[in-house]
Design brief:
mainly alpha
Length: 111
């Protein structure tokens, strides 16, 4: 996968996530919902930076860490029933795809 494909994939994934976060209960707005939304956008920013940076490895490792954190936040969301099983399975598949793409990009970096 090429960096633009990963960036486009994550753009669509983060858009989906932000849409779902808008539907979480209001009492989660400043805790779980805010963290998930901010993390999705942080990953998007890191991917944009990695596209144009010479220090790609450092940024891509950060992306992988953020993806892992996001996996756990979404697991909590599912356990609290803010995400249905279908939504949870979908987003976990998207995170796995993004992680694989990021890993492939990381392997191709020769620094």
């Amino acid at each position: 996968m090429t960096p633009p494909q990963l960036l486009e994939h994550w753009y669509k994934t983060s858009d989906w996530l932000l849409d779902k976060c808008d539907r979480f209960p209001k009492h989660t707005r400043f805790t779980l919902t805010g963290r998930i939304g901010n993390m999705a956008l942080d990953i998007l920013e890191l991917l944009i930076e990695a596209t144009y940076s010479r220090e790609k490895k450092v940024l891509l490792v950060k992306v992988n860490i953020q993806l892992e954190k996001l996996r756990f936040l979404l697991r909590i969301s599912h356990e609290r029933r803010y995400l249905s099983i279908q939504q949870y399975e979908f987003i976990q598949k998207e995170l796995l795809t993004a992680g694989r793409m990021c890993g492939g990009w990381l392997k191709s970096c020769k620094e």
